[in-house]
Structures are given as structure tokens and as C-alpha cells.
Amino acid sequence: MKGPNFVNNGITFKGCGSYLPTQVLSNEKISQIVDTSDEWIKTRTGIESRRIAEVDENVSEMGFKAAVSAMAMADWNSESVDLIILATSTPSDLFGSAPMIQSKLRAKNALAFDLTAACSGFLFALITASQYLSSGKYKRALVIGSDQLSSYVDWKDRGSCILFGDGAGALAIEASNDQNNLFGFNLRTDGARGSFLNLYNKKLDGNIVDQIKFRKGEFSNISMNGQEVYKFAVREVPIIISELLKETNFDSEDIDWLILHQANQRILDAVGDRLKINKRKILTNLNKYGNTSAATIPLVLDEFIRNHKIKKNDIILTSGFGAGLSWGAALLKWG
Ligand code: ACO
After folding, report:
1. Which backbone phi and psi does 147 adopt, to 5 degrees?
2. What is the rounded CA–CA span in Å between residue 171 and residue 145?
3. Do 60 and 145 contact (CB within 8 A), yes or no?
4. Rounded distance, CA 249 to CA 95, Å?
5. Is 286 a pocket residue for ligand 1 (Cβ < 6 Å)?
6. Rg of the chain taking only CA atoms, in angstroms
7. How far apart are CA 140 and CA 56, in angstroms?
8. pTM for the complete prediction?
């Protein structure tokens, strides 16, 4: 028969992995460089330490290690991977870091590209990959979140440098024609509020020849209006999650685990309270790693799957939010 022969497939979750750099930066050490204290940071954010990538590490290196571990859990060989999407805002190469991961994995059959949506990046990448798989053309995808925000943090700004850390996480997801463990999703962007959180390209002019000028490529530091980002997260995340639960006919009691982007423990608690989700269902590792941007959600998933807290068939509600502004939620069953 002529014409498209794609079918609508479902998605199953086959494996997860993560990587964290070994350098630990404690609150105590941060208080040696800016006017802050362990007590202030812990009380206001829940963060106790974060990991910082070494000079010879980068986003593709970290993402590669997380992907290797996800592939091992899924029991996939490299050549069976069709698609690699790397969510990152801090690429090792502005032309794309996912191809570097593809090459290191020797995943020669995989289409590989980067996706940028800051702290919502992993969720956006997961949904993007699910659409490729559901088309029927792609079968196996690695969705990776890897970020190295330490390179862009202003280490003199106590309002933001306390929050961020580096790391990577990955999920191995597969198309299935008799099962769909991705129950639903909702994604949003509001560029009008984008100025609350940015990592701008600097306005630096260079001269090529005669009067022909150009803008040099160099990025500034993270600039953030913390209070506005905080208010945005606490207001918008419960709304998007409630809409998703309604659309999928789920109640908050049906949820086994809530995994929110790890930005601030007070945001996690406030969202949990608004949704009336029991605190013991809200998974966090924010105290150890801080906000690792696109890596937080798969880092939490990987930790709690490997320590057997999350079990096969558990229902997981997840939500990412951050710069853009961008935010989203997905409801899934592990397995
Ligand atoms: N140590 C001590 N004092 C501090 C520090 C610090 N590290 N940072 C700020 N302060 C001071 C302020 O100067 C202020 O002092 P003042 O009252 O004398 O003016 C006071 O503490 C209160 O400041 P706030 O900004 O009101 O503190 P808040 O309780 O809002 O906490 C924080 C600040 C932690 C940044 C919080 O607003 C937050 O977490 N916001 C969300 C940020 C976020 O999650 N960003 C990432 C989003 S994800 C992405 O896409 C990358």
C-alpha cells in the first residue's frame, strides 16, 4: 500500500542511569566566598551541598556516563538505539553535544540532537522522544538531561550561587504496540516572563574589517529574580498538575510518587501541600545535589529506582519548571 505506514505506539520505561561529579561543594565552603551561612541556605532552600564538574569534564562526558548506565539497566546494545535527545542549557559544543554522546556510545544508528529548555528540558525531551516513538518509526530512545551550570554561575552572587550544581541523568524508553506507560502530559512556555531567569549572550562587539562589526559569542552569568521564579513555580506547577490529573482521570491519591524539579525544598513542600499529596510521596535528593537543571528529574528517578523505593508499575507524577519561563508535567507508570 502506498502512503504512510506509521502506527501510534505506546511508551515503556526500560532503564535509568545517572552520573555525578565527585567534587563536593558544601554550604560551609560557599560561606567562605559569599556572605551566607549553612543555616541560611539549609533553611531557605533545603540544600546542603552540590557537585561541581572538574575542568576536564563536560556535559557530553557526564551525559555519556549516565546513558551507559541506563542502557545497561535496559540491556540494550548501542546499535539498537534509534534516538538520543540531550536536554541541556550548557552544551559542550553549541552546534550540539548529543552527537558526541552518540559517537562515544557507538550508537551509529541513532539520530541525536540537543534540546534546550533549562530546568524543564528533561521533561520536554522526554515528551519529544515519546512522540518520535509513538510515530512507529523509532523504537528505542535515550533521553538525557545533563547540565554544568557551575560554568555560568556568578560565584559572587549569594542569591543564586547557593542553588546550582552539576550532574546528568538518563532514561531508556521503548515503543510498544500493546502498552502505554505514559498516561499524559502538559507543557507550557511563557516568554513574556522570561526575564526572571536568564543566561544571556553578551552584547560584545568585534570588528571584522573596515566598518563591518559583529557580535562576539560569549555568555554572561546566570541572572535570576529568585522571588519571582519562586512565586511562578508555586503558582503554576499545581495548576498544570491538576489539569493533567483531570485530563487523565487520576486523583492525587492514585499517585505513588511525586518527582518535582529539584529547585528549592520550600517549592516542593508548597506544591505538595496545594495538591494535597502526602509528604512521604515527594521524592527529593536536593539536599545532596542542589539544582542540576535538566538533570534533576532523572537523578531522582535513578536514585529511587536503584534503592528499590520506586517499584515496577508505580505511578509517578513529575513536573519540571524553570527558565523560559517554561514548565510541564507528565504522568507515567514505571516499567
Ligand atoms: N545568604 C544569606 N542571605 C541571603 C542569601 C544568602 N545566600 N541570599 C539572599 N539573602 C538575603 C537577601 O539579600 C535578603 O536580605 P534583605 O531582606 O536584607 O534584603 C533576604 O536574604 C531575603 O531574600 P529573598 O530573596 O527574599 O530570599 P528567599 O527566601 O526568596 O530565598 C531564593 C531566595 C533561595 C533564591 C528563593 O527565592 C528561591 O529559591 N527562588 C527560586 C529560584 C529557582 O528555583 N531558580 C531556578 C529555577 S530552575 C532553572 O530554570 C535554572
Report:
1. -145, 150
2. 9
3. no
4. 41
5. no
6. 20
7. 30
8. 0.95
Kindly report the protein residue whose alpha carbon is nearest to atom 35 of ligand 1: 226
Q: How far is CA 153 from CA 24, 164, 219, 332, in A?
A: 16, 8, 11, 33
**What is the C-alpha separation between 120 and 128, in angstroms, rounded?**
12
Going from the N-terminus, what domains does the chain have, and what CATH number goes with each? 10-176 (3.40.47.10), 182-195+221-333 (3.40.47.10)
Which of 99, 65, 39, 55 lies closest to 299 in space, CA to CA? 65
Residue 291 to residues 30, 106, 267, 332, Cα–Cα distance (Å): 15, 30, 12, 23
Sign of CA dihedral 161, 167, 171, 172: positive
pLDDT tens digits for range 301-328: 999 999 999 999 999 999 999 999 999 9
In single-letter form, the type of residue at position 234 comes to V
Tell me the backbone φ, ψ of residue 4, rounded to 5 degrees. Answer: -65, 140
Would you call 291 a catalytic residue per the annotation? yes
> Does residue 261 carry a catalytic annotation?
yes
d(CA 132, CA 321): 23
**Cβ 231 vs Cβ 325: under 8 Å:** no
Amino acid identity at 259? I
Cα 147 to ligand 1 centre (Å): 21
The alpha carbon of 116 and the centre of ligand 1 are apart by a number of angstroms equal to: 25
Q: Mean per-residue pLDDT for 248-268?
A: 96
- Summary mean pLDDT of the chain: 96
Q: How far apart are CA 287 and CA 310, in angstroms?
A: 19
